[in-house]
Amino acid sequence: MKIAFIGLGNMGGPMARNLAAAGREVKGFDPAAPAPEGVQAATSATEAVAGAEVVVTMLPNGAILRQVAQEIVPAMAAGAVLCDCSTVDVESARAVAAEAQAAGLGALDAPVSGGVGGAAAGTLTFMVGGSDAAFATVRPLFEIMGQKAVHCGGPGAGQAAKICNNMILGVTMIATCEAFALADKLGLDRQKMFDVVSTSSGYSWSMNAYCPAPGVGPTSPADNGYKPGFAAELMLKDLRLSQQAAEDADADTPMGRLAAQLYETFVEAEGGRGRDFSAMLPRFETRGRS
Ligand code: NAD
C-alpha cells in the first residue's frame, strides 16, 4: 500500500517514520519539517499524494487542513482515502469529508490521544469518524501507529470524541490542581492527598497518571519543571474547539467554558505558554483567589 503523509511535525514525523519502519512505502511533504528516516521527501503535497492509496494529514488546525484538502483532493487517485489525524473543529472535519466524498474518495477524521511519546512509540489511540469501508482500508495503518482505534461513527465523530475527552481532561486537571492548592492551605501532606484521592472517588487520569504535584505519583511533567508534555496552549486550543462545538450544537457546557477561560488567562497573561498544562498547580499556589 502506497501512503502519502502531509505534515511531518512533532506528531506526524514519528507517525510517518513508524509506517516506513513497518515496510510501507511512504512519501511525505512538509514545507518546514524534514522527512524522517525511511520516508521519501516530496517537493509538494500534490506530488506526495499522486498514486497513494491512503493520504494521512497531521496539520496544526482546521483552516490549514481545509487549504491542504483543496489542493490535494483533485490530485488523489480514484478510490483513495484521505485520513486526517489532526485535531480540528468538527465543522472543518465534516466539510473536508464532504469534499473528498464528492470527488469519489474515502474520508476519515482520526484524531489521536497519546502525545509525542505515543506517536514515537506507536501506541496512539485513534478516534475515528467516517464510513466502514474507509475505516477498514486504514485500520492496518492505525495498528502500526497506535494500539487502539475506535470507530466512533460517521464524519466528524472522531473529532467530537476527541474534544469531549479533552474537555473532561482540562476540567479534571484544573479541579485536581485547585484541590492540591486547597489541601496545602489546610496543612494536608501532598503524598497523603495523592494516596487518598488516587484510590477514592476523586480519582482521574489527571491525578493518577499525570499527577500535577512534583514528587508525587508516577513520573510526569511536574517532575521535569513542567516542561511539556502537553503544552497549556494546546489544551487551550482543544477547549476552544469544544466551546465552539458546544455553541454550534447549542449544548450547555459551563465547566468547559470556565476551563477555557482559566487556560486562556493562564496562557495569555500568567506565563503559562510553553509550560505543561499541569502547571496550573503552581498557578493556584501563587494565586490565593481568582
Ligand atoms: P507541529 O506544529 O509540530 O506539526 C504540524 C506540521 O504541519 C508542521 O511541521 C508544519 O510545517 C506542517 N504544515 C503546516 N502547513 C502545512 C501545509 N500546508 N502542508 C504541509 N505541512 C504543513 O504540530 P504537532 O504537535 O505535530 O500537532 C499536529 C496535530 O496533532 C495538531 O492538530 C495537534 O492539535 C494534534 N495533536 C498534538 C498532540 C501533541 O502532543 N503534540 C497530541 C495530540 C494531537
From TrEMBL:
<dbReference type="InterPro" id="IPR008927">
    <property type="entry name" value="6-PGluconate_DH-like_C_sf"/>
</dbReference>
<dbReference type="InterPro" id="IPR011548">
    <property type="entry name" value="HIBADH"/>
</dbReference>
<comment type="pathway">
    <text>Amino-acid degradation; L-valine degradation.</text>
</comment>
<dbReference type="InterPro" id="IPR002204">
    <property type="entry name" value="3-OH-isobutyrate_DH-rel_CS"/>
</dbReference>
<protein>
    <recommendedName>
        <fullName>3-hydroxyisobutyrate dehydrogenase</fullName>
        <ecNumber>1.1.1.31</ecNumber>
    </recommendedName>
</protein>
<dbReference type="InterPro" id="IPR029154">
    <property type="entry name" value="HIBADH-like_NADP-bd"/>
</dbReference>
<feature type="domain" description="6-phosphogluconate dehydrogenase NADP-binding">
    <location>
        <begin position="2"/>
        <end position="153"/>
    </location>
</feature>
<keyword id="KW-0560">Oxidoreductase</keyword>
<dbReference type="InterPro" id="IPR013328">
    <property type="entry name" value="6PGD_dom2"/>
</dbReference>
<dbReference type="Pfam" id="PF14833">
    <property type="entry name" value="NAD_binding_11"/>
</dbReference>
<dbReference type="InterPro" id="IPR036291">
    <property type="entry name" value="NAD(P)-bd_dom_sf"/>
</dbReference>
<comment type="similarity">
    <text>Belongs to the HIBADH-related family.</text>
</comment>
<feature type="domain" description="3-hydroxyisobutyrate dehydrogenase-like NAD-binding">
    <location>
        <begin position="156"/>
        <end position="281"/>
    </location>
</feature>
<dbReference type="Pfam" id="PF03446">
    <property type="entry name" value="NAD_binding_2"/>
</dbReference>
<keyword id="KW-0520">NAD</keyword>
<dbReference type="InterPro" id="IPR015815">
    <property type="entry name" value="HIBADH-related"/>
</dbReference>
<keyword id="KW-0101">Branched-chain amino acid catabolism</keyword>
<dbReference type="InterPro" id="IPR006115">
    <property type="entry name" value="6PGDH_NADP-bd"/>
</dbReference>
